User: Fold these one by one.
Assistant:
Number 1:
Amino acid sequence: MLELNASNKKIKILLVIPTDFESKESNGGIRVFKNHVEELSNNQNIDLTLMQPKSQSFSLKKKELYHVGISTPFMFGQINKLIKLINYLINRLPYDVFARLPSAKNGIDINLNDYEYIIVDHIYSFGLLKGDIGQYKSKCYYISHNIETKICVEREDKAINFFERFFYKFDTWLMSKFEKVILNSIDNIIWLSEVDLLAAPDLPKSRYFIPEMLPVRNSRWRYSNSKYVVFLGGLNYFPNYDAMEWVCSYLAEELKNIGVEVFHVGKSEGYLNNLKSDNVNFKGFVSDDDLQNILNNSICLISPIELGSGVKVKVLEAVCRGVPVVASEQSFYGIKHTSASYILKQRDEVHWSGVIKDVMNKRDELEIAYDEYEKCYNNRLTISKLIGC
């Protein structure tokens, strides 16, 4: 753990994040990265350098990669894809790591002697470090957002055709090997979910659990007579799509009986062919101001997530405003509960509808959740505190 010297010299830290967090299209991961950047950059004892990709758009998307096997590779535009596919196979790195290999912003040349510590935020960020883990071993804190191999296995199970299934199976194998190397090599690992920490291999490393907490919002949830609940999360992420299938097929119809509509906020374009319900309003991407207004005036947030791993930022977006949350057990992994947290063990639309009706009947009693969260936030453990700043 670092300690400031007598001259109060700033500690030089390189923070590596796997995405361009200035992108207009925000999501849960980007909000967490922003949170970490703001926390470290606001610390007067830290001299922070940020490394991130040049943009969100990489030269070859996953679907293009496994569709090379379907299309004729020597047709116009396919030769370049075939070359990249071959490079992917040669590099033997998980796709989302491989895709970032050439894309470090500003061409930062890493000299380990320039930084007291390197903080690698998410497993994909190792692609920006050229995938060479060993040389960073003693100077690195790795922030684990998920058990990535678990997500890959679940994604593989959702594959829709042979080529997609083969690609995801191969990528799962690569991720399993890569993640094992990281967990066995990095000296200091920060877990954002206590459940993931307990499920990880018992390694002789320094392991820390830091619950992710978004800043307390100035605008808070208040009791109102609204008639909608909110599902937050892009449908391009398969655990969200899986949950939304259940909402459209079962929960939305049950909520219609009590006069409650479902608002979906997040990416939905291109994913609605099999999601049909006249009681779901797909809002798409919204501004931060609109999101705040939608959440603060809702009955509650719903999160029936059963797949995936790590912390659900959609839940954090609600609890930091004092919004009641009706959610699955998995949705609350790594998140501090409040008196407005309703954790349900299984998907049963009648039970979920009954709980939401109960929230409607006692919303004026739930406003204390905002104060509970604020107290926890002010006493939280942070990355800066962990490394001694």
Number 2:
Amino acid sequence: MSYLFELMSQRKQFSNGFCSFKQNMDDNSNRLLACARLLRADPDHFFSKKNPLLALDLFKVYEELSNNQQLLLLQVYAKIHNNFTSLLSNLQESPDPKMQLLGDELMLIKGNKGLLKKFSGTSNRLQIQLLYCFYTDQYENVLKLVESEDWEATPVNKLYFNLLFSDTQLQSDLLLLFIDLELLESHLFELFIVALNEKTVTEVVNKLSADDEHVKLIIRVMSLSGYTKFIPFLARYLQDEKYTLCAYHSLRILLGDKLDELIPSDIQFDSDQEKQKSNLAYYGAKMLHYWDSDFLKVFGPCILSGKNRTPLNILNIYKSASQAHRRVASINQIMVNVDDGLHYYAEAEAIL
């Protein structure tokens, strides 16, 4: 059992790092599956029960784990028993709201069409179900829901529908809705940011700047947007010890390995965090010096991992870049035309 938790802890470290790649996650997944098959021999273990109803009764011992870890274990269970559909049905039909929500999140991660049998009236579940329909291109089913008596036109539901399924022109004023509805940390907000043009995302940043509590979010928005105009602002944040690590993460997202030409890699990946922060702050000033140099002129107006944000580059980054870059590339899929549709990619910790 301790080995299982050790593997999950390792996965958490891998999930959003710049030094971990898909191969690292795949190796971890294989070890998790091998461990689960050994634990299946224990008749009192969750993994031993092929019947999902019996298994979920034993799954309660994992209630204290994070949501990502619970989702991961459920996928491991379904994989070793080859019973995903049955597991999903039991989760979604469970009397426990937490289990229902896990079922919908599992459905979103799986991403196959035909997994949603009916829409739920609860707000949290409906948000996930609408995202699932967005990623599986089920506009007609959503339209039927909206036109039915079952649709509750709450501000949250309307925001999800308008952003995901309508041709609503994206305006910076929508930011106030995200703030009022406490959705600034949501996946919907990420999709909103990457869909904005340069003018509108700048307006969003300016509005967020009115509140000092939003500084870390502003830094993240700058990297999600991909616009190189924000690099000098991130360099300034790099010099503020309260935001050094956040700013570094955003700069690495934007510049990728190109950042090594400005900041030595041994400083970027120093295991001594205090020393790392101090050195990164010094290089923030140096980056500002380079802003007007030829170095940064090679980039286009919008980049990811040092490459222009084009459909082909986004797909290549998703396939082969670091886990941190793959996550951002997945959010940028909305500008990529692919034959088999979009693919939701949560934090890698949660996906087998």
